[in-house]
Structure to design on (91 residues):
């Protein structure tokens, strides 16, 4: 399932951003995922306010040295994986 560019991802119930030993983590029921770099940038924007397209545009600006299409594909893949792990919902 590829996320719709106009959908607004948000953390699923029971999931939240946290910190563990000064490392940002995505806390999910019975597990945690360490976040850094682009993954942290993406998850911080999954607040139900930003659209997938806005997240892609923001990160394309932050990582302007990378090929824009590659950034888009990587973000869509990451959002899909988080959704498959039941960490994200799309509105």
């Amino acid at each position: 399932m590829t996320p719709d560019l106009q959908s607004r991802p948000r953390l699923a119930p029971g999931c939240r951003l946290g910190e563990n030993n000064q490392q940002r983590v995505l806390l999910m029921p019975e597990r945690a995922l360490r976040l850094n770099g682009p993954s942290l940038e993406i998850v911080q924007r999954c607040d139900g306010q930003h659209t997938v397209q806005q997240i892609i545009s923001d990160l394309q600006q932050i990582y302007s040295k990378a090929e824009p299409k590659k950034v888009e594909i990587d973000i869509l893949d990451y959002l899909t994986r988080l959704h498959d792990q039941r960490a994200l919902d799309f509105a």
Observations:
- The domain at 9-90 is CATH 1.10.10.1150 (Arc Repressor Mutant, subunit A).
- The radius of gyration is 13 Å.
- Helices lie at 37-44, 52-62, 68-84.
- DSSP finds three helices and five strands in the chain.
